[in-house]
C-alpha cells in the first residue's frame, strides 16, 4: 500500500495543526476537503479525530503540552511516519485577519479552501462511557492550565455550581476535567455532580462519545463549543470575558448550524484580548436565565 501511495501522482501536503482539542475540531472540515486531493501528513496530537479520513498519515514529533503528549503516547503506534521535508506545508493558525473575523474565516485563508459546514462533524468514537437512568448532562467546569493560562475566558465558577444544582433535578450530571497538581486546576472549587471524571480518566474518544450521548452540554467557552455543535447536541455556553477571542461571532460562523446553542452573557461583556484581564463577568439573574435556556432546548 505504501509503495502504491508513494508512486501515485496525488500531491503530498504536510499540515502542522493547531494542537488544542477544540482547535482540532475546527480544523477537521478543512482536512476532510484537502484529503480529497492530497496525501496528507498531519502533525496533530489528536489522531482519533481523523480516524475516518482517507489517505491521512500521522507524523511523529515532540509534544510538550501535557494532555496532548499523553494522547500521543496512547496512540504511539499511529505515529510511524517521519516528518517529510521539502513538501508543501500548511501551518494552521487563526487571529491573523485584521480586524479579526473569527476562527473559521481565518482557517479558510490559511488552508486555502472554502469552509464546508457539512464537514463540521466528528467520527463515531464508540460507546457512551457511562450508564445513567436519567438523561445525561455533561458539564465542563472552569479550569486554568499553566500552559496557555487563560482565566479571562472562563465564566465565574459559581455559575457552574448553580447550573449543576439546577440540572440535577432532571439530569444525570457528569463533570469532566483533567486536573493535575501544578498543571491544571479548578477555577474556584471542584464542583460536585452525579459522576465526576476530574483527573483525565476519560480519554478523548470517551469524552466525545459522552458528548454525543448527552441530552445537554454546559460550560464556558472551550472545546465543548465546537464539539457539541459538531455532534448536534444542545449546548448552553456561559460566557466569561476576553470577548476579542471568545465572542459568539468569533468562535462560531454564520454558516454553522448553531440552532441548539444558547448563550448566557455577562451584563457588561468585556471584549478585551489579554488572557489575564480582570473582566467583569457578572450575570444578573443567572439562575433564571439558565432555567430558560434549558427549557428552551428541551
Ligand atoms: Zn476583559
Overall pLDDT score: 95
How many beta-strand runs? Answer: 12
Strand content: 15-25%
Q: Major sheet: size, sense and barrel closure?
A: 6 strands, parallel
Low-confidence stretches: none
**In one word, what is the shape?**
globular
Look at the helices and sheets and give the structural class.
alpha/beta
Approximately how much helix is present in the residues?
25-40%
Rg to the nearest angstrom?
19 Å
What's the total helix number?
10
Main sheet strand line-up: 9-7-5-10-11-12
N-to-C series of helices and strands: HEHEEHEHEEHEEEHEHEHHEH
Blueprint (SSEs and pairs):
Layout: H1 2-7, E1 12-16, H2 21-34, E2 39-43, E3 56-58, H3 66-74, E4 89-91, H4 103-111, E5 136-140, E6 143-145, H5 157-167, E7 172-176, E8 184-186, E9 195-197, H6 204-212, E10 216-219, H7 224-230, E11 235-238, H8 243-246, H9 248-251, E12 261-264, H10 286-297
Parallel strand pairs: 1-2, 1-4, 2-3, 5-7, 5-10, 7-9, 10-11, 11-12
Antiparallel strand pairs: 6-8
Helix pairs in contact: 2-4, 2-7, 5-10
The structure holds zinc ion.
Would you write up a description of this structure?
It is built from ten helices and twelve strands. It is α/β, with parallel strands linked by helices and 298 residues long. α2 links the parallel β1 and β2 (39-43). α5 packs across α10. The N and C termini lie far apart (48 Å). Bound molecules: zinc ion. Zinc ion binds next to loops.
Amino acid at each position: 500500500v505504501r509503495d502504491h501511495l508513494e508512486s501515485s501522482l496525488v500531491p503530498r501536503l504536510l499540515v502542522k495543526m493547531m494542537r488544542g482539542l477544540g482547535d482540532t475540531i475546527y480544523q477537521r472540515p478543512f482536512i476532510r476537503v484537502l484529503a480529497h486531493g492530497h496525501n496528507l501528513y498531519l502533525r496533530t496530537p489528536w489522531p482519533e479525530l481523523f480516524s475516518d479520513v482517507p489517505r491521512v498519515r500521522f507524523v511523529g514529533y515532540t509534544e510538550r503540552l501535557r494532555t496532548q503528549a499523553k494522547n500521543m503516547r496512547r496512540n504511539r503506534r499511529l505515529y510511524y511516519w517521519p516528518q517529510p521535508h521539502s513538501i508543501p506545508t500548511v501551518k494552521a493558525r487563526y487571529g491573523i485577519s485584521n480586524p479579526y473575523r473569527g476562527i473559521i474565516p481565518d482557517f479558510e485563508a490559511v488552508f486555502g479552501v472554502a469552509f464546508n459546514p457539512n464537514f463540521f462533524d466528528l467520527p463515531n468514537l464508540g460507546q457512551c462511557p457511562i450508564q445513567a437512568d436519567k438523561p445525561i448532562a455533561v458539564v465542563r467546569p472552569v479550569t486554568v492550565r499553566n500552559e496557555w493560562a487563560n482565566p479571562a475566558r472562563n465564566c465565574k465558577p459559581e455559575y457552574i455550581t448553580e447550573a449543576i444544582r439546577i440540572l440535577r433535578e432532571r439530569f444525570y450530571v457528569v463533570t469532566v476535567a483533567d486536573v493535575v497538581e501544578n498543571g491544571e486546576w479548578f477555577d474556584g472549587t471542584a464542583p460536585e455532580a452525579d459522576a465526576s471524571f476530574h483527573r483525565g480518566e476519560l480519554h478523548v474518544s470517551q469524552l466525545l462519545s459522552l458528548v454525543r450521548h448527552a441530552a445537554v452540554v454546559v460550560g464556558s467557552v472551550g472545546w465543548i463549543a465546537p464539539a457539541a455543535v459538531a455532534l448536534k447536541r444542545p449546548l448552553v455556553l456561559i460566557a466569561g470575558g476576553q470577548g476579542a477571542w471568545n465572542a459568539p461571532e468569533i468562535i462560531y460562523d454564520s454558516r454553522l448550524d448553531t440552532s441548539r446553542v444558547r448563550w448566557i452573557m455577562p451584563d457588561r461583556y468585556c471584549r478585551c484580548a489579554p488572557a489575564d484581564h480582570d473582566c467583569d463577568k457578572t450575570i444578573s439573574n443567572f439562575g433564571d436565565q439558565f432555567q430558560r435556556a434549558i427549557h428552551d432546548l428541551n
